[in-house]
Design a protein that fits this description.
Low-confidence stretches: 1-9
Largest sheet: 7 strands, mixed
Number of strands: 14
Order of helices and strands: HEEHEEHEEEEEEHEHEHEEH
Bound molecules: L-MYO-inositol-1-phosphate
Number of helices: 7
Radius of gyration: 19 Å
Shape: globular
Mean pLDDT: 90
Distance between the termini: 50 Å
Helix content: 25-40%
């Protein structure tokens, strides 16, 4: 194995279409196998543990799904890095990269996004798999097992749902003004944070068509891409909640940014059709939606 410390890191622009296709196909394979596991082999009784709060749950199927996705991906590409929500491990120390000039690929995975929905067997839980190069998401796949849909995107190549191109509607038939916009959002697991987030929604709700709280960030972003909601915002998320869905929304023509404007950062996002993005971003700034994290 050569000395990879000298290996140049390719820019995102230099990634070959061949590599993007390989990564997309591998993410689809892993998502399909994880869908079969969590939906078709769902046990009658889930084992549930808690993380940050009593409502921040992880089930045995979250763990099994992540182990399966890790196995599918790293058995095909052992040189890659893998960061999963539940294992909390990052095999950066063992990721060696290729002998060739191929860039280091990091997989960012939420094995079940929308765990509460999954626990209650409510639609909306999903499997979110992203591949990153040089810190930028280049491939994103989000599987929606309850509806049998798979959303996907590769950087610069558009967004798709089950192979059908997705394009955010930006004409008036959906929403050209905020008061006709359907906006999705979500809440954290801390009661104090949820109370502050609810105050923002209380101010917002009279100024939009309606609010939807669907329970899973990755799919909320895919709904923006598919025009099922006109915008989505949320704070206090993990990188695995956002990585794949943000690329899919952006590749479908949505504007995706940090809730306070600027490039998106892990944890905080606003995504919307170009027709209403500026209005939504402005009202969120007016309501200090990005500062709810500070008690
Ligand atoms: C969920 C997010 C959702 C948020 C939930 C939760 P998890 O992720 O996808 O948008 O509102 O509170 O964080 O924990 O189910 O993977």
């Amino acid at each position: 194995m050569g000395d990879h410390s000298q290996r140049r890191s390719l820019t995102v622009q230099e990634i070959s279409q061949v590599l993007l296709t390989q990564l997309t196909d591998l993410a689809h394979e892993a998502a399909n196998q994880a869908t079969e596991l969590i939906r078709d082999r769902r046990p009658s009784q889930l084992q549930v543990d808690h993380k940050s709060t009593a409502t921040d749950m992880v089930t045995n199927m979250d763990l099994a799904s992540e182990a399966l996705i890790r196995e599918v991906i790293l058995s095909a590409r052992p040189q890659d890095r893998f960061i999963g929500e539940e294992s909390g491990t990052d095999n950066a120390a063992t990721a060696t990269g290729q002998e060739t000039d191929e860039p280091v690929v990091t997989w960012v995975v939420d094995p079940i996004d929308g765990t509460t929905n999954y626990l209650y067997d409510l639609p909306g839980y999903n499997i979110s798999i992203a591949a990153e190069v040089a810190g930028e998401t280049v491939v994103g796949v989000v599987a929606d097992p309850a509806h049998g849909r798979i959303y996907s995107a590769a950087i610069g190549s558009g967004a798709f749902c089950d192979g059908t191109p997705l394009r955010v509607p930006n004409e008036a038939h959906h929403a050209s003004s905020l008061d006709r916009a359907l906006i999705a959002t979500g809440f954290g697991y801390s009661p104090d944070l949820r109370a502050r987030q609810a105050l923002v929604v209380a101010e917002l709700i009279p100024r939009v068509r309606d609010i939807r709280r669907l329970g899973a960030a990755a799919l909320d972003l895919c709904h923006v891409a598919a025009g099922r909601v006109d915008g989505y915002f949320e704070v206090n998320l993990g990188p695995w909640d956002l990585a794949a869905g943000a690329l899919i929304a952006r590749e479908a023509g949505a504007i995706v940014a940090h809730i306070d404007g600027g490039p998106p950062l892990p944890g905080s996002v606003v995504a919307a059709s170009p027709a209403i993005y500026d209005q939504l971003q402005a009202i969120l700034a007016e309501l200090n939606a990005g500062s709810v994290l500070a008690p």
